[in-house]
Amino acid sequence: MSIAIENDAMFHELQNKLFAAYLDFESLDRVCEIMSEHLGYDFAIVDTLYEELGRTKRRKLHADELPPLNAYKLLINIETEVALYGFLLANPPERLDIEIESSLLRQCVIMPIVLWFDRLTTIQASNQRFRDNMLWSLINDEQPFTDTIKAEGQALGLFQTDSYICITGRIGIFDGEVQRSKTDERQWFIKSLLTIQNHTQKIADKISRHIMFTYQQDIYIIFLEYRQSDTEQFVYFFLNALESKLKHIFGNVKFAWGIGEIPNGPTDFHCSYINSRLALDTCYSENGFGHRYSYKDARLFQMIYVLRQHPNIVAMSERALVSLMEYDRKKNSSLLDTFRCYVQNNQNTAKTAQMLYLHRQTLLYRLKKIEALTGISLSNHEEVLFLEVCIKIYCDACC
């Protein structure tokens, strides 16, 4: 038979017992026992990592012996509007006398169970806020990394080693091929952050590495323990595992990563973060999601960035390009793009003409026009390099 409205009293009694168990600080094992006593099912409660938090004792299973999720008669999300905490799993007895309607079970027991997770996550969130604030202040170079700060951080689980590599990432949420709005992505990230952090920690534990992380200004910041015997491929292995797990959980998510400079000694958190962000920003601006840049990939960008901070250099770059850009504007031509393509193809006219779908003579005419407008010789390597750098400085500065 089906539990219907006439059984509301039984569900109400069960709910009251669960609330009482919460107030008495009972364990989630006891929660599973209470539900089993009332409903006859075997229950298990797991977090989003599928780590067992409670079970009916008579099952006598270890955490790694839990059946796969699809082996349970019922699987109900333990969640609120802002967070997914875990799952309630239920298996019927061998002789099924009562069929539990999942909607009634959800209404009856999920709210009390959420209270246990809320209590746990409130403690975790409080500790994480302290860790976030401490790590973010070091990243921003707001305070020196003294022995006192290190000791305070170690009490919170931070700074368990001296050498870390910084990884910064953007996570994009897509519906098909369309990326969600920034507002929707932020709301998703707030709801999903605990799950992301838990899986990040679990992957680090599997490879026996200490890890620290924080989420700031739409950027996921990771400091991963790095040993002298490690290589850059070790970082890629970690990111591959993290991406695979998050895609399995969340579906259509995409990533862009920046990997900081390989450390050589104790970590300078500010410099390590700046280098990682430089790599991330270069990666994201040039390629969007689905790519990773290391610090060494972004070194030229860093040089250009430094040069852009000098107004005189930006003005000099503008003077070198103004005639070329003005000609393109008035004639609706593309000499600037022609030069870029010419440099990209190592000044090979045949390849450049092919890429631009131009006759070779048309390309040669354009190159002569570029020389006339800029006053440089395209046969002079230093002058070509100068014009290329001017384009990077001034075009980037105008973006």
Overview of this structure, please?
Strands 5, 6, 7, 8, 9 and 10 form a six-stranded mixed β-sheet that branches. A four-stranded antiparallel β-sheet has the order 2-1-4-3. By secondary structure, it is of the alpha+beta class. It has helices spanning about 10-25, 30-40, 100-140, 145-155, 180-205, 230-250, 270-285, 300-310, 310-330, 335-345, 350-355, 360-375, 380-399, and strands at about 40-45, 50-55, 75-80, 85-90, 165-175, 180, 210-215, 220-225, 255-260, 290-295. The chain has 13 helices and ten strands. The chain is about 55% helix and about 15% strand. The protein starts with 7 loop residues before the first helix and ends with a helix. Strand 7 and strand 8 (about 220-225) form a beta hairpin. The protein is elongated. Helix 1 (about 10-25) packs parallel to helix 3 (about 100-140), helix 8 crosses helix 13 and helix 9 (about 310-330) packs across helix 13.
List keywords for this structure.
single chain, 399 residues, alpha+beta, four-stranded antiparallel β-sheet, 13 helices
